[in-house]
Q: What sequence folds into this?
């Protein structure tokens, strides 16, 4: 493939992912003015706490082995049958974790529910919801590595539409509040997982043969990532838990509105990265120094544009909150810019972490993420007491910035790139 074809493929894939992700961003964004008028801040806080639970389970259910199946696709000479057996091994790992977690959730549901402000049964259902999400991610990942952007986007959009319709039915039509929002998410995840399983089977990408060697390979990749997933939880979700414990469910609900308003940024960055990863990995395998310089130059240009988006959020965030969410949630405007800056650092982080995944040496990534997450917890504890939800957002942005910088250092050690050896016009020619 020549340079022009490479650019065309990347742009076409990015455009498809971006279109799908924009629709996915618009749907919850359009729901927000409705939900904030049918749910009081305390109910929104319950929804936020349920998201915390799902985020905490994401690194435990399946032990983070989805990415190992995506990387396995790039092994030289691997057949569809072998990949199907490997994915089957990943599902076996997921089922084992569910079997362990369900009894734990049943036993611990009462004290945990009281602490989080949730219904006890929701904690049990959250395990199954996380397993369903694992299944959806497996199907999406196998489309991504093949460059099937349209199928990837269609699946996501249909899932978001179903979630929105069922949410409106339960929250607005039947006035079920937080329960309606959570039930809608759970039922849609369950249905999506069934569809995802069927599509994997249709493509012969799931085989339940017993392969201990594949189990070990998947676990070698996934288990070192568990601290990394825990670190992501401490970075991106624990703020709502700490706000709830120190300022109450209503404050957590107001903060959650600000979080939702800034989710367009990670959705945008995810769309770009979904198209970028297959494109990047192909070029890293070629190991061409000139291509690497052009990749670096383009990455720096991406960083500058991302930082400009955070500046816009600081300028227009308070007005956006007042117009979209209404007077009950106006305090969320004070945190919007800081949350946006944190997500921008997250978008910069994914651009450098790809090199670590390509190297298949993920151990130090977990150290970085855990360290940044623990810093976030410490800052949250201090700054929430001093500045309330605004302090939580500042802590989040600070910790995300540190994670990006440390990950950049690790990425260069795992797969060196010419970060100091490029020309400014490299971003506008050649591979780009």
A:
């Amino acid at each position: 493939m020549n340079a022009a074809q490479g650019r065309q493929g990347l742009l076409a894939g990015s455009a498809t992912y971006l279109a799908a992700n924009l629709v996915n961003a618009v749907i919850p964004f359009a729901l927000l003015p409705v939900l904030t008028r049918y749910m009081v801040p305390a109910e929104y806080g319950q929804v936020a706490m349920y998201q915390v639970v799902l985020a905490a389970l994401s690194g435990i259910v399946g032990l983070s082995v989805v990415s190992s199946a995506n990387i396995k696709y790039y092994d030289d000479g691997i057949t569809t049958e072998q990949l199907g057996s490997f994915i089957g091994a990943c599902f076996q790992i997921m089922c084992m974790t569910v079997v362990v977690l369900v009894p734990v959730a049943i036993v611990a549901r009462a004290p945990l529910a009281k602490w989080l402000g949730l219904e006890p049964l929701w904690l049990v259902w959250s395990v199954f919801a996380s397993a369903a999400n694992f299944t959806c991610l497996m199907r999406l990942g196998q489309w991504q590595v093949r460059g099937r952007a349209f199928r990837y986007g269609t699946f996501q959009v249909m899932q978001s539409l179903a979630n929105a319709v069922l949410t409106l039915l339960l929250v607005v039509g039947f006035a079920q509040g937080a329960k309606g929002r959570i039930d809608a998410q759970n039922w849609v995840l369950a249905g999506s997982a069934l569809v995802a399983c069927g599509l994997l089977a249709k493509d012969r990408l799931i085989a339940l043969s017993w392969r201990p060697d594949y189990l070990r390979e998947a676990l070698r990749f996934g288990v070192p990532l568990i601290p990394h997933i825990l670190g992501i939880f401490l970075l991106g979700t624990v703020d709502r838990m700490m706000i709830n414990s120190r300022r109450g469910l209503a404050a957590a609900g107001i903060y959650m509105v600000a979080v939702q308003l800034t989710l367009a940024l990670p959705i945008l960055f995810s769309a770009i990265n979904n198209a970028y990863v297959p494109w990047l990995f192909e070029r890293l395998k070629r190991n061409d120094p000139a291509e690497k310089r052009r990749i670096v130059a383009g990455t720096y240009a991406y960083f500058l544009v991302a930082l400009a988006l955070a500046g816009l959020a600081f300028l227009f965030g308070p007005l956006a909150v007042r117009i979209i969410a209404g007077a009950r949630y106006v305090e969320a405007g004070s945190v919007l810019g800081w949350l946006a800056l944190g997500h921008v650092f997250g978008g910069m982080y994914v651009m450098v972490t790809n090199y670590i995944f390509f190297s298949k040496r993920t151990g130090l990534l977990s150290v970085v993420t855990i360290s940044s997450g623990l810093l976030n917890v410490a800052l949250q504890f201090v700054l929430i007491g001093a500045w309330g939800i605004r302090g939580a957002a500042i802590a989040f942005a600070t910790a995300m910035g540190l994670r990006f910088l440390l990950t950049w250092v690790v990425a260069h050690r795992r797969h060196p790139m010419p970060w100091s050896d490029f020309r400014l016009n490299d971003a506008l020619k050649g591979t780009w």
